[in-house]
Amino acid sequence: MSMFAAKGLSPQDMAVLSGAHTIGQSRCFLFRDRIYNDNNINASFAALRQQTCPLSGGDSNLAPIDGLFHSDQELFNGGSLDSLVAQYSKDQAAFFSAFAKSMVRLGAINTLTGKNGEIRLNCRTIN
Hints:
- There is one protein chain.
- The chain is mainly α.
- 49% of the residues lie in helices and 5% in strands.
- Helix 2 crosses helix 7 and helix 3 (28-37) packs across helix 4 (43-50).
- The radius of gyration is 17 Å and the shape is globular.
- The two termini are 32 Å apart.
- Residues 1-127 form the Plant heme peroxidase family profile domain.
């Protein structure tokens, strides 16, 4: 939370922006350690992901990204953000509204414009 606060974002911004982790898929080799070795994971969820991600092999097997990150579990772990996470999981409209507002705030942080910035053709590499 302190890293988000240092950028002028609230704990609520952190929670809703982390909600983007519900979109997409991840390869097995990127989350294998979490589903086999992390103590802070729902056992049923880990068992479900282990069905498509064996302890060895299957590195390219895909699984939905929702809940795969350790940081996601930390947001719903008996802390101050539990009620907000629960609310967003039940109210998609509220989540989308809050997400849009937080994305605008995030996009305004250290934004480079004009000749100082660039629109990347591939987000992983500088043009």
